[in-house]
Amino acid sequence: MKHALRNTAAALALAASAAVFAQQGPVEIIGLMELSGAGATAGTNFDNGVKLAVKEINASGGILGRKIEYTTMDTQSAPQTAKALAQKAVDQGAYVVMGPVFSGSFVVSMAETRRAEIPNFTGGEAADITQKGNPYVFRTSFTQATAMPKLARYIKDTVKAKTVAMVWVNNDFGKGGRDAMTKALEAQGIKVVADISTDPGQVDFSAAVLKVKQSNADAVFVYTNEEESARALRELKKQGYDKPIIGETTLTGQKVIELAGDAANGAVAHVGLTVDAPQPAIKAFDEKFQKEYKYKSDHNGMKGYSGMYVVKAITEKVGKFDDKAFAKALHGATIKVKDYPGVLLDVHFDDNGDLDRESFLVKVVGGKQVVMETLPPVHPIQ
Amino acid sequence: MADFLQLVISGTATGAIYALCALGFTLLWQASGTINFAQGEFVMLPAFMMLFFINSANLPLWLAFLLTCIVAMLLLGYAFKRAIVDPLIRHGVIPLVIATLGLSIGVKQLVKAGVTAQALPFNSPFPDGLIALGELKVSYADVGTLLVAGLIVIGLQLFLNRTVTGRAMQAVAQNTDAARILGINVQRMVLYTFLINAVLAVVAALLVAPIYLVKFDMGESIGLKAFYAAIIGGFNQTRGALLGGVLVGVMENLTGAYVSPSYKEGVALLLFLVVIIFRPEGLLGKSEERKV
Do B252 and A258 touch (CB under 8 A)? Predict the structure, then answer.
């Protein structure tokens, strides 16, 4: 009897210490990233951004005293792989899941994290991601529904174009962008005279560019992923296209500039995030990222980095590691740079998980992004 | 009309790159009965090699190109023949097809894991800008591509028809046994074909890398289209490969512009199907009879 009592007491003590350890051991965050395939550029950058933030957060004591253990899984840019990996992340007990970055993968994989009620951040911009009533999905960038109207206004007021040719990539990201942009252009009274779809991973843009030239539009709007954007820019230059080339975020991304070389010069885009922005927090990020990875981050690196700091900010606001409370607290939350410089810009999340913050109009000059204008948030951040 | 001509010219330039690759297909087939489904990767590897020489060793493009030709001849010519083709060819074409398919996947994955999964930029060997002939505007890149591919093809034809070695190679292609009886070193001639194929792949890489960007999977589409082009033109005719390549390039451009860019990628496959149904020996090919 005495022995049994002692054994029970020992077992209870062991169980209690295990529970204490579980709450004090590292917290698991899993990244579902496009490390290969068509999205390799976007995924690798996003992943590097997350890793840098994790390294910094861990160096400064972690979140609520717990270190972050970050693991990346390669979705190979394939939705079915992303879905399977999301299930794996759930099984491994992830606190938060970062990614995938590609909208097409995310809309498939987010069902798994939703079922498990785990907050899931994406770099995807397709408008419909946050329109499915999923309370666990959060963006790290603008939705196309926010970005495109800003760009359409620029095309009307500054470029003064009356007709536009549109080259877009036929995936969820591209289709969403095309629909949002068509609507935004219509609202400004601008006509789309050529509507050209291209394939994900397309290597030859000669026919698309010929079609753009044939349309005789006042400007071309290019909305494709990174590598395809670079190929499109190279082809536009090769065929001597001399009208304004306009895009949204990806077109003037750092990787696109690197891949397109001189052909990127002159391209204009609305970007949610750019390392060339004048804000001190962004400058500091730029330096740290370059020191860590020996190259300049694009917007995806910034999305991953700031997304991770949003996790830190909200978890600290909640005061414990609780998935449901986290999701609830992030809806309607505002996080300011003065409290968390890692979020890079003051940011506000709405009830759908969409975010609002300042954005930029940039132009590529001499192989560099130059910020022409800082655009205010759609709704002023209090 | 200017539009149409422009489409034909730039299509011919793209087609010329397919043709270089397709030429390699037909040469290997004729000389040794080899079908190389890793042909696309034979274009991808030299692109990475050239980049390595340019970026790591700071060599100018022409020197990088020459060095890559040498490495490619050793690796994609000699080593490929000795390590893969020679041991397998005696078992027939099918084991070799499977082996080259495996090689294609293996090489891609090796580059993806060992070098990078991301695309890398490659500067065009030709200047930017357009040549205007009235309404017709042609880019230097297209003209340059046509010139380089044209010179290579003419040079190859001259070599095959006007030199003793070239004629010996043709003799091997036409009838290996008779060639051997005539005292031709068949193995050596076959090796030459493999070396030529490797160089053709390097030239194709030089021309295509600025457009496609250098990436582990850049060879997929070009390898496949070259294969279609070779079948369309006639697998047992070098002229057939040229015609097939150019036809695919031009038809792709015309479809892209006049029908829809979405259908462009399917053009080669459609042509391939039509040819294989109505003229299986290819447009310029000769039908082969098999003796029992």
Answer: no
